[in-house]
Amino acid sequence: MRIYFRSVFLFLLFSYSLCAHQNNAHNLSYTLHLPTAQTQKNNYGLSQQPFLPSIPLSTSSDAIKTKKQQKETLENHVTSITNQYLQSGKSFFKGDISRIEPMIRKAIVDKSIKKPAVQDTLKFQAITHLVTTGQTDSGKVVPYKNHPWMQNHDLRTASLTDQIKLNYMISRVSQVCNDTTVELVQAGLSSWEQAHYATNPHEKIMHHNMYEKCYKALKQNVQPDNMACYAPQMQQADITKLLDRYTYEINTYQAQNNVCMQRTDSPYFARLEQRKQALLDSEKELSGQLTRENRTYTIDAQTVGFMQACNINYACFDNIGCSRFQHCITSEIVTILKTAADMASRNNYESIITQFAKHTSNLAVSAQQLNQLSYRDHAAVVLTDLAHFFTSYGQIMLDHDFQLRQWKKLGIPVATGVARSLYTWVQFAAKLYDDPHKTIGKLSHDYYAVARCLYTIAAEIGRFTPFAYLDDMAQDMHDNINFIQHTTHSPPDRRSSRMMQRSEHNLQTLHVGLYQALHLGQEVISSMLETPWQETIAHIAEFTTDAFITNKATSCILYLSQYVGSQLLQVGSEMQQMIPSHLLDSSMTFMKTDAGHLLAVADATGENIAGAIAAQALKIAESSTPFFQFAPQAKILADTIEQLTNPNKEEIAALQKSLEPFLRTDKIVDIERLKSIEGIDQIDKFKDYTNNFSNLEKLHPDEILYLNLCDWLEPQACKINAELKKNGGLKIFDKASGQQAVIEKFDIFHSLLGEMKPGSVRSTTSGGHCFLTELRAASLSYDEVKAFGNGFFDMQIKPRRGLSASYKNQTYFPAGKSISDCTDMLIDAIQKNKLTECVFIDDRIISFEITNIYDQIFSVNIESNLAKFYPTSPFASKKL
Amino acid sequence: MHIKKYKQFKFKINSYYPTCPNQEYPIAHVAMFFHNAFPYIYRMGTFDFIEQLNTKYKNGMKFEMIELSIDNDNNLFYINESAERSIQKITPEIENLLESDSVIELCKQNFLRHVIITKNNLTHLLLTWEKFVDKKLPYILIYLDDSNWYETLSFEREEAMREFITQHTQE
Hints:
A: alpha+beta; five-stranded mixed beta sheet; three-stranded antiparallel beta sheet; 30 helices; 14 strands; B: alpha+beta; four-stranded antiparallel beta sheet; 7 helices; 8 strands; globular
């Protein structure tokens, strides 16, 4: 919350300074408060003030005697209304709106001008005409249609006020290369976008306020100062601290790898060497032995275009008066940006690779901005190291191997694919710490170690974030850290104890190099979040840095850390599970066959690793230990329910056995089978969302699990409903009220599995009364659990993801009851009931409650002969 | 006192059932709340539940057919039907409001069928119902009187309940 309050404070401070300036500035007001125009409130309480006049409502023609008079009056009326549009819009427009005159005339003639809908249409037409013909008071609108940001954003849904403001922002950025202006414009555009897509009012208002502040700041400052104008010089103490660190790391690396200074293949250590030299030169600059250099950095058009499209500041390379070390960092950052732009250029704007490249570039730019501004805690250097790390990941794992990963996710066991996958991971590891000969076991533990570092960094950011969705993400990461700890400290069987030994050793070697960078990253980020930057930076740059750069850097790191961390965790787990234990101590060699296939061969035994993995996979499939992300949560939930309801353990084991092959959160077990299921609304929604399961990247782990369980449920649901149909349905009859209904089909997906709508969380508490522990643990948070007899119980639930603050009370069938057990119980209750009551009836739905011979009540809602059902909580003695 | 709307309940086996299933708004929502939600509230302890409406449940609580949403600024409760039951076609606007859990906004825009009741009134009804349920009194009447106050009374005999209704519904 600290960062939130700090941001709010800064907004207030900034607003105050703007207001003070506005007193003697020319009129910048963009809203007209007209006597007849009422301020409207939108759903989130934000004012939407109309800026055009209301139209005179009197169109009485009583006084009109002749056709000529009538015509004159009409024309006068049209002119009058048109002028009012022009007058009221003069803050924006300087043009002619005669094109809409015929529409005004028609509206007057047919007397529809009084209608609010017609007035709205006319206003819309007037403004659209002015905007699209570029008749604004500050620059043309039309040329900015070609700005890359505009190309990727559909503004048709934005209000016209927003359209004009956004166009103004773009017009500002198209005129100058001042980095503060660019930063303000980009923050404004980005805030507008985030406000537009915010899922709750709190975040919407926060982003909207930021957007307004940026707009006003741009209106106020014709040419703000460059951020770098106020940067302090790099001091000897900064140089000494970095020199000590680099010298230590290089020496340790050389000692461990026995390489001479001139021959190093590790990009990381090559960088350190360059930086060390730049630091030595910077020392000479300080002592006067060398003069400072002014360098210009040319960023190619493709990179600038990519940065513009992604709203990334491309004007922050003004390194006048910088030290050689700063130049060195800037050169590295320019390379990162170019790599990211290259990566993005081969993929579409929405693709995950482009998103990844966008976040990496934004992180690199934040590093560059800090490189120009301040050296506190060497934040710029640390962020640059992180940007290098993420770029390497993006290049090796995402870009070049994207197709391969898709195969892997689809579960296609191609030997070449396995070998290539291993090859890319080994390459990635080699890039990280230059030890391509590490054993496979070491490799997986390194990935765990790096994932843990990344999660810790991300969780640190999550601790401060005011945004709920990031909180939610951080929660997931804490779970994953626990999972890593759980995995690396599992009970000491022979294999895990060896693994732990390896892990200890690896952490020592990793500590130098990447691990060190990540560890420093965590410290620097904590410091960035806890200490405001204005202690070291003054003027408008202070606001810009504090409000934008910190937030930008932290949100990028959060996204990237979470993404890469989960990938590393997953691949680490897969290596541990899929590679036979006797090969974990072996290093690998890769070779190409005559047919061009890649083979991974274990150095120790000469075995083909892909073949060994295939054999292991078969073993694992038999023993059923798939990757299930929510295992710890499911265990806790299962224990809680077991303690309270004392369920039948044999039933639980049987249900578990049938579920096990489907309990995966990392992949869809059988995509083809899911594709072939038709007519199930719950699955169809996912088909639409993922383009018939071709884009699975969008799915959350709980959604993947849900789809797998849909696959599990479908044959059972079909069988039950076929049986029901065969028996002619079920008739329910309430003697007292005379109400009756026929059930032709059970909505088993809704009633027993539950709802899950892709990309949404609210529906996860709807339906789902069969107690499927893993799915409930993956998708729900729960509070109180109350048992009330015969194994039935109530649980207070809410979606695990998302913002819902209120719990739902839900009753569940006893733990261990299968799908057919649940439907059998209902059928039995209907056939041998103690009581049937029709409780509510409306236009669509008729609700019955049936009490079975054990006094358990079942509610059945019937709509068009389709029955949704659930056990319900009866009144019972509090003692129960 | 004049009864504007009413709903009768009868105790059978282990629950109170409305004697007529037809929906008469707005009393039907209050009736649905007591039929569908009160068993949960009763089990968790009615007094505790009321206490926690200011803390743990300050955003309200959902039940299978009915939801309780709280407008803390105005000391009002919204008893609304679940979206699933109330809304036939979910537009993007409704979807956004549902996703952000803006139930009161949905009610205000009449997307969800609901009834508004003051905190005092609902608290009174909950505490009174608890007493009735403790004693398993056979008949309960909930009604809306001419001062827009929801009241509840219990009866030992159905005839007595009907007589009371007759007396207070005549003009």
